[in-house]
Amino acid sequence: MAPKKDLTLSKKKDQYRIRNWRQYNQSLVNRGSITFWFDEPAISKWYSVERVGKPGRPDTYSDDAIRCGLLIKAVFRTALRALQGFLGSLIKILGLDLICPHYSVFSRRAKGLKIPLRRLLKPGEKLNVIFDSTGVKVFGEGEWKVRKHGYSKRRTWRKVHIGMCADSGQIIVSAMTSNNVGDDEAMLYMMEALEGIPLGDVLGDGAYDTVDCREAVYDRGGRQIIPPDKNAKPQKRWLLPALKERDKAIRRIQELGEEGRSLWKQEVGYHRRSLSETAMFRYKTVLGDRLTARREWTQATEVAIKLDALNRMTEVGMPKSYKVTI
Q1: pLDDT tens readout for residues 233-242
Q2: Is residue 191 within a helix (H) or strand (E), and if so which, with residue range?
Q3: Taking the model in full, what pTM does it have?
Q4: Residues 119, 246: Cα–Cα separation, whole Å
Q5: Which of 25, 48, 172, 319 could bridge to 62 as Cys pair (CB 3.0-4.6 Å)?
């Protein structure tokens, strides 16, 4: 008979409490308010004036109107036809002199729709950015069916890559790729979108420990907080300036001994990277873990719309917690 474990020696999990519960609770309520998503700026810019006098068929509705409708679709998880009925009834109840777009207009205009993400930086402030990725389902069998009876048809999924501000929690850049694109490739693409923004700390997991990624961060003046491979060794015969931070990390880990990697991560503040994992968890919990669009270009718009919705929820209010000492 196996001996019983001594539970008194097991480490207790840290407990936290929210100090701004009243404000955070109200922010959760505000997220469900239709006036938060169907707001005055969207109403005032409902019709398009940008294509007047330009060749081709003019767009009746502005990008703001299409974005507003797709935001409501993502947050309240409606289908396109249901979105038309839902939005049309809101316009009627609010007594607005507006016409609701047809559901086919939302479908057609979603292709290539530009979704600007937040970039809340003060003058002279450097951006501390966290890169991460997660997978979202497109179509395929459910988890229960696969466990019970096994696979019977192809399952497809996409990868959502984000660059998140470590200070504000805002997602400032994103990309959607197929499941065979590496995180390091997506990071290089997103770094191009951050051109002109001064970088501070750049955090990522071991998937970003490549020469190209480190050179991209080094060229922008950023500080690399990326763990090297467990079997990594410092450079010997040749020296790349972009790898100096990596060599420094390797030597420091070796100096710290058996628990070197854990202690190094605490020293450099690597555990801030968990903020991006929390953001991905919120994305899937609040907005769902699958995409409803079938075409790749509309899937990219759906991802960007959901990330924009997540940013708006962050702006309304987030919990501020403190550790409980027992």
Answers
A1: 887 666 788 8
A2: helix 183-193
A3: 0.86
A4: 29
A5: 48
